[in-house]
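Q: I'm writing up a methods section and want to include an example of the input and output format. Could you take the sequence below and give the corresponding predicted structure tokens, formatted cleanly so I can copy it straight into the document?
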Amino acid sequence: MKHRGMVRAMRKIALVVMACLFSSAGWAQSSAAEVKRRLVGTWKVVSSQRTLKNGKKAFDPALGPSGIGFLIYSADGHMCAELMNPDRPAWKNNAKPTDKEKVSAFDGFFAYCGRYEIDAEKHLLVHLPEVSMVQNYVGTRQIRPFRFEGTRMILADKAKDNPEVESWQVVWEKMQ
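A: Here is the clean output for your methods example:
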């Protein structure tokens, strides 16, 4: 009798564990679907700033204080990001820009496109550039920790490639 009771109890425990696993797997899928539902569309940059190691706030040097840009996510898993400093000097002659004008245009603009992945559980977007103005970006995994605040999405993380910068943050507003 004790053996049958033990078997029944173990079956009940196994069923509860399996139910929990299936429900949490379903939650993760619906959570990823919910993130994708909120993500798909066009986003316009609101602000982009860095926090320096000395604690001071600074604008992203490529965008300047009035940077503009768009981040587009499609339902089929593609994304495109284009950001620029609108205060870049115009070329005096569009047909023959000077080397200085070309460098200024390049330094004040950043763009890449490719596929994206969502890790809803860890609150990460992964951009997978297939084309980029910077060749070294192609084929990389650009990890973007994210959070939503109303109609805004904040991408923010610790800086990994600049010893003077502690962290960065880009705020995006969903276009309607």
